[in-house]
Specification:
Blueprint (H helix, E strand, L loop, with lengths): L2 E5 L4 E8 L2 E9 L3 E2 L4 E2 H11 L5 E5 L5 H13 L6 E4 L11 H12 L5 H10 L1 H8 L5 E3 L5 E4 L2 E7 L9 H15 L4 H23 L8 H25 L5 H9 L1 H13 L3 E4 L4 H4 L7 E3 L5 H6 L7 E6 L17 E7 L20 E4 L6 H6 L5 H5 L28 E5 L2 E3 L11
Parallel strand pairs: 1-16, 3-6, 6-7, 7-8, 12-13, 13-14, 14-15
Antiparallel strand pairs: 1-2, 2-3, 4-5, 9-10, 10-11, 11-12, 16-17
Helix pairs in contact: 1-2, 3-4, 3-6, 3-9, 6-9, 7-8
C-alpha cells in the first residue's frame, strides 16, 4: 500500500487504497445527494471516480454492508463504466445457529409488506437484489463473497477477513424475536397466498445462500453454474412480486407491516446490519512479523458495532499504522478497546446530514493522527476552533509565534528520509494532505 485517499462524501464512506498499479475501493456511498455546499451532486462525483482511477490497471471494489451511505455510489460508477472493477467483494448472508439467514429473511419481509418507496425500502432492495443487480451492472465473473476466515491480496499484501461469520452468527435476541413474530403471524394465517409466500421465502433464502456459496473465494464453480443460480434467484423473486398485491390484501398484512415497519424494528435491523459489516486487516505471515510493525498494518471496520469489535478483539493486532473508524466516528458506536491499541493514523468519514451523528469526542483523546473529512462535524473543533491534531502534530513549540508544520507532505520538497504518510482527503474541490485550517491543496 503506497497511498490512501479518503473521499469527502459528506455522511458516507469511500476510501481507496493503492499501490503498484492496484487499488481497492472500500465502500462508496452517501446519505447526501449534494456534496460540499452545492459543489457537486454525489452521483456525479461517483462517476468522476472512474476517470480518476482509470490509469490504475487492477481495480477492485468492496461493499462492507448494504446501507445507502456505503453502497449507492457503486451504481453510478458501474453505470458509467460497467467493467471498471475486475473484482467486487460483497458481504454474505449470515446464518444463525439453526442455519437461518435472519437479516435476509427480515429484508424479504420488508420488501413484500412495506411497498411504499423510502430509504427503508431502498435498503432492503439493495440486499434482496444484490447479486442480480451487481451482475446486471458489472459481471458475474467479478463478484466474490467474503466472510470470516477468507483472505484476499492487494499489492502483494495478504488481508484476512475477521468478520462476519457465515454460520453460527450471533444475532441479538431482540432481532430474532421480531423475525420469529412476523413468521408466526404468517404461519397462523389461513389462505393459500400466505402459505405459498412462506414456501417462496424459504426457497429464496436457500437459493441466496447457494449463490453465497458459489461466489465464495473457495468455490470452483463454473461461470455457467453461478449465472444459473442468480437467474433462479431472480425467478423466485419474480414469483413473490406477482403475489405482493394479494399478500397485502390479507387481514394479517397490516399487523406484519406495523411490526417490521416500527421504529424499534428499523433500528434493530440497522444495528444488526452494521454489526455484520466486513472487517479486515493485513495478515501477519509468521511469528517474526507478529512483533514487527509496518505501514502495512491496517484495519478497516465498515460500520462495525462495539459488540462486533469485542467479538474479534483477540484477533486484532496490538498496533496499527492505519485504522478506519467505524460508523463515521460517532459516539454511539465508540469502542473502549481503541484505548488499548496503538494507532498511528485514524480515518474518520463524517458529514452534514440530519440523520447522522457528529464525530465523538472520545476520538480526540486518542494519540493517533486523525484524518477527518469534515472538521465542522467534530464538537471539539467547533468548541475549540482548532483541529485536535494541531498541538500534537503541527507545532514544534507552542510558544513560537508561528507554526512549524511537522507533516512532510507540507514541506516544499520531500525526500525518502522524510516520507509523508501519503494519506489524502479528496473532495469535489481538490486533494488535500490533511483537513485543518491550513490544509495544503495538492492539485
Amino acid at each position: 500500500m503506497d497511498w490512501v485517499e479518503l473521499h469527502n462524501v459528506e455522511f458516507g464512506d469511500c476510501t481507496v487504497l493503492g499501490g503498484n498499479g492496484q487499488m481497492l475501493m472500500i465502500d462508496c456511498g452517501s446519505l447526501n445527494s449534494i456534496l460540499g455546499k452545492g459543489a457537486c451532486k454525489f452521483d456525479e462525483y461517483a462517476r468522476r471516480l472512474t476517470k480518476r482511477y482509470a490509469p490504475i490497471e487492477q481495480r477492485h471494489g468492496m461493499i462492507s454492508h448494504f446501507h445507502k451511505d456505503h453502497v449507492n455510489g457503486f451504481s453510478s460508477i458501474l453505470q458509467e463504466e460497467p467493467l471498471f472493477f475486475q473484482r467486487i467483494y460483497l458481504p454474505p448472508a449470515p446464518q444463525d445457529s439453526n442455519g437461518n439467514p435472519l437479516l435476509l429473511e427480515f429484508a424479504l419481509l420488508v420488501y413484500t409488506f412495506i411497498t411504499e418507496k423510502s430509504d427503508y425500502s431502498e435498503l432492503v432492495d439493495n440486499i434482496v437484489t444484490a447479486f442480480s443487480r451487481m451482475r446486471s451492472l458489472s459481471s458475474t465473473q467479478s463478484l466474490a463473497v467474503l466472510c470470516q476466515g477468507d483472505q484476499f491480496q492487494l499489492d502483494d499484501i495478504t488481508y484476512e477477513v475477521l468478520w462476519p461469520k457465515q454460520t453460527e452468527y450471533p444475532y441479538s435476541e431482540s432481532f430474532y424475536e421480531v423475525v420469529e413474530q412476523a413468521n408466526r403471524l404468517l404461519t397462523t394465517t389461513w389462505g393459500n397466498h400466505a402459505e405459498l409466500f412462506l414456501n417462496y421465502k424459504d426457497a429464496f433464502c436457500d437459493c441466496y445462500l447457494r449463490c453465497v456459496d458459489l461466489l465464495s473465494l473457495h468455490s470452483s464453480a463454473a461461470l455457467e453454474e453461478k449465472n444459473e443460480a442468480i437467474s433462479q434467484l431472480e425467478a423466485i423473486l419474480c414469483g413473490i412480486d406477482e403475489m405482493i398485491y394479494e399478500l397485502n390484501s390479507l387481514p394479517v398484512a397490516q399487523d406484519v407491516a406495523e411490526l417490521i415497519g416500527s421504529q424499534k424494528a428499523r433500528m434493530r435491523f440497522g444495528k444488526e446490519l452494521n454489526g455484520s459489516s466486513i472487517v479486515f486487516q493485513n495478515q501477519k505471515q509468521n511469528r517474526w512479523f507478529q512483533n514487527k510493525h509496518t505501514r502495512e498494518d491496517i484495519l478497516f471496520t465498515g460500520d462495525a458495532t462495539p459488540n462486533t469489535m469485542e467479538k474479534i478483539s483477540e484477533m486484532l493486532h496490538d498496533r496499527y499504522y492505519l485504522v478506519k473508524a467505524p460508523h463515521h466516528g460517532t459516539s454511539s458506536e465508540w469502542w473502549e478497546g481503541w484505548n488499548t491499541i496503538e494507532i498511528t493514523h485514524m480515518l474518520i468519514s463524517n458529514g452534514h446530514h440530519s440523520a447522522g451523528g457528529m464525530i465523538g469526542e472520545e476520538y480526540v483523546l486518542l494519540p493517533a493522527i486523525k484524518h477527518c473529512t469534515n472538521c465542522t462535524r467534530c464538537r471539539w473543533y467547533v468548541e475549540k476552533g482548532k483541529c485536535c491534531n494541531r498541538k500534537k502534530k503541527c507545532k514544534e513549540n507552542e510558544h513560537r509565534s508561528h507554526k512549524v508544520k511537522k507533516c512532510p507532505a507540507n514541506q516544499p520538497q520531500q525526500t525518502d528520509g522524510m516520507r509523508g504518510c501519503n494519506i489524502y482527503t479528496v473532495s469535489p474541490l481538490g486533494t488535500y494532505a490533511c483537513n485543518c485550517k491550513e490544509q495544503p491543496r495538492l492539485e
